[in-house]
Amino acid sequence: MKKLIAACLATLTLAACSAPPRPQLEGMPSATPAKRISIVGSEVVLPDGSRAPMDATGGFLLPNGERVLRDARGALVLPNGNRCVPDGAGYICP
Questions:
Q1: How many angstroms separate the Cα of 80 from the Cα of each of 21, 23, 69?
Q2: How many domains does the chain fold into?
Q3: Burial level of 45, CB count in 10 A (0-12/13-18/19+)?
């Protein structure tokens, strides 16, 4: 009988120590998917579908006239300072 009571107390003690269940959060925003710049021949295809010819350095002009540069490590540097890293088929941008 003592062993049964001890076992019940141990079970209750362990149950009290477990973390409460986490509430499910509804309406949480999902992570923004990365944007892709693809390379097709000597052109880049921007996330909006527009195309721009690449220059000799690997950079290009955006439709708004701003220049995208290519850095020494092969990444594209956008006018806002963000870097798009190469992934073999193009670039992944934040």
A1: 42, 38, 11
A2: 1
A3: middle
**Does any domain span residue 28?**
no
Pairing of strands 67-70, 76-77: antiparallel
From first to last of the 94 residues of the chain, give the pLDDT tens digit.
666 665 555 665 655 555 556 665 565 555 566 899 999 999 999 999 999 999 999 999 999 999 999 999 999 999 999 999 999 889 999 9
- β-sheet bridge partners, residue 87: none
Per-residue tokens: 2 = 């003592």
Domain of 66, in residue numbers: 35-93
Residue 57: inside a domain, yes or no? yes
Q: Which residues pair with 85 in a beta bridge?
A: 92
- The C-alpha angle with vertex 28 and arms to 24 and 22, in degrees rounded to 5, equals 20
CA angle 65, 45, 34 (to 5 degrees): 100
In a domain, 46, yes or no: yes
Write the DSSP symbol of residue 38: E
